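Predict the assembly for these two chains.
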Amino acid sequence: MKIKFHKITFTLFFFSFILNFAQVKISGKVTFKNKGIAEVNVTLKDTYDGATTDAEGNFSFETSEKGAQKLTFSHIKYYEIEKEINIDDKDQTVNVDVKEQINEIDAVVVSAGSIEASDKKRATALLTPIDIYTTAGADGQISSALNYLPGVQKVGETEGLFVRGGTGTESKIFMDGSLINNYFSSSVPGIAGRDRFNTSLFKGNVFSSGGYSALYGQALSGALMLESVDLPDQSSYDFGVSPIFLSGGFQKLGDNKNYSYGATAGYSNLNLMQKIFNFNTDFIDAPQGFNGDMNFRLKTKSGGFIKYYGMFDTNTMGVKTESLEPNYDFALVKLKGKNTYHNLSFKQKFGKYLLNAGTSYSFNQSDLKFSTETNNVEDVESKVSNDGNYINFKAVVDRKINKISALRGGFELNYANEKLNFGEINKNYRDLISSAFMETDLGFSNHLSAKIGVRAENSSYLNKTNIAPRFALAYRLAKDWTTSFAYGLFFQNPESKYINSSAKLDFQQSQHFIFQVQRSTEGRSLRFEAFYKKYDELIKTQNIVPNADQNQQVQTAFNNNGNGFAKGLELFWRDKKTFENIDYWISYSFLDSKRDFLNYPFNLKPNFASEHTISAVAKRFIPKWKTGINLSYTYAKGRPYYDIITQNDINIIRNEGKLKDYNALNLSFNYLPNLGKKDAKAFTIFVLSVSNVLGNKNIYGYNFSQNGNRSSAVVPPVNTFVFVGMFISFGVDKTQDAINNNL
Amino acid sequence: MRKQILSFTLVLFSLLSFAQSTYEKVMKEKIGKIETCKTTEDFQVLANDFQRIADKEKGKWQPNYYAAFSYIQKGRILMRENKVQGLDEVADQAQKYLDDAQNVDKNAETQLLQKMIYSLKMMVNPMERYMTYGTKATEQFNSAEKLDPNNPRIALIKAEDVYFTPEQYGGSKEKGIELFKQALEKFNSYKTKTDLDPNWGKSEAEYFINQAPK
């Protein structure tokens, strides 16, 4: 009996075993909007059984499981679906319709007006630090490299980004969200200041030529947002040598890779080059400067990130020009500049909230001494000294709503205290601009998203408040095609240099309308943008007694009755794919602008706006020679120039005309002898760059004598310039940093 | 009664061993497929297969390891076809499964995969990412090599890196072939701990050696 029982158990077991192994086929189709979806993982939950859908979305597998089961469908781009099924001994079909998941990679983002340049996942990334260093003619400077993008005007005599018919001061530059007050070094009239900030400090940037976010203000035309680098990958020592500068620095990374600190110092002097090359500008004191900076970056235990960057620099130069006045032989100007900038920022996540706070302090001093020379005797005429103290604070809290939607808000304080000393005149200008802003990113689907924001500002000097709405919409037309539209109202205080009286002034304002169509595919991007910008409440000025012997005009603002417009079309094409090892881009800007502002007697085409600008950049790296060859070319149609004077309180044009067209072809080479040598302790880069190879004699404008009868051209300090330099980095293969300060 | 207990134990044991062998059987079957996969689609199917097993067999590192490996192979095909746009996504998927595997067991094999993931990430934009992912890849590789110097897969990946690096950057096909030969020797002597441990790569080494001019 016992044996029998055993036999029965065994048979039963065996039977059930067989039963269990009776396979049932489960098949079906996975669709999204009636189209089959491939590569969906179909799984009979908690079993090994399942399948992956084919190109048509079909799947089929066999299982021996029985009873109530769950079938899951998962794919990275779609929401996971779980279906309850009951398996008996019959084959069955299960069809499902999946729902698209909203995600950052596929979601369309508002890009009207802005060009992003960082190592993000987007294929359209433009102008990373390497791009800047390898752009011929950009001198390794961020602002110069932006000249090769659409919407930026080539204005050689003044520093600043001249965006879409705006002046250089209508664009502001931010570091980790905080305003940089004196991004460009002090200079003398007619020679543009240079970028004070080293390109390799920033891992990426977003350059907006209009319609930008409510997080930024006090810029009528454009905003450049620079993102500073995080912890370095390795400790290193770096040196740079060239006939015009020497620099050295180090970065030390903590053992646990949670902190780093470093410092650099540099000295530059143009004296030697001046002896070799034929300069247009007669430097009585060759431009020379000393600069140093230090930084630390710290990751806190609670996941916060603190960054500090501080720098100081001093620079001097002296320029001698033939005097336009009959009584003198020469006009002289000497500059002494001093600057320090400190930025401290903090970033931390608190659950769903992200806090970004930053503060910066800067001090800038520029002393200009104007004099004349007659029969080799120098006569001190006047001194202009400017001292500025600036404190900024900004805090932004960001809350994610879903993967592509967020709400953020915060406030910003910008305090300025400037002292101007000009002969008898002592001016003290103080202003506190307090701003609050709110913005939301709304992602409706991967095809449609919007950005709505508002910003309010109060200026203590003007004693006025403004409210600026911003709005943008983006829509994906097809897989590679997106379109966006942006609108915004922007306010900016009158520049303090025009505030020389007690006239009641108000904010200046501009309105932007931007329409963009963009196509981006692997290695290529095409961008078309049309814009209309309307200016209102621009300040109107009159010239006050110009300094007799200098072409320095002092203007004073008396009301906000100015206005103007700028409209245009822009085209941008970048291609890294068609030609092997060649990366090139072409941009074209058409600009039509007229303004009645400053001392313009009526509506005029501004003297900083060129109707047509074409630029092309091409880079080729030849692995065999370990050498990169870079070319760039810019053409800008001649800008107008004016000689405006104030007579009996009325502004009149005494002389006017058109400059000749601007042309420049630049060339540069980078040679990296140690590239790929794994055992090399030092990494070296040699740079040779020639700007304006063809030696075109470009003219930036004209200066006029007091009576208007004589004039002289404002020209670049040198027509063609050759730079050679060597950069060495110990400790780490630091390719990107080295082609630095490439003057 | 004793007999009953015995038979019961027997049944239980057979059940247990049966369960065990299903895991092993399925794993072996899927591992066998690695060699036959040619396209990105093939590797996606394989990755999904291993993911299914990994979901059920928490506490074992191999299923997650192979899921990650399948994604890496998918990524390497994309890389060879110059389709770097989708590479980040594939590498992130691989990373997800590798993290799960490493939570169970962190060994030379998983470290090697980590190196391969970093290399894929670097290839998305070598100029920009050389400093970050390139350095990380080297670090991981060194650490894996230190942990298991005789591992043939580590030798294989080293050989591949040298083989595909242009001469002026310190690589060469000849040096690569030499390293492939060394890797092959290691393949012939290396014993994996269990049948399910990583054992791929030998045919790849042979393939490259056969490519070499005789």
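The CA atoms of residues 75 and 182 of chain B lie 26 Å apart. Chain B has nine helices and no strands.
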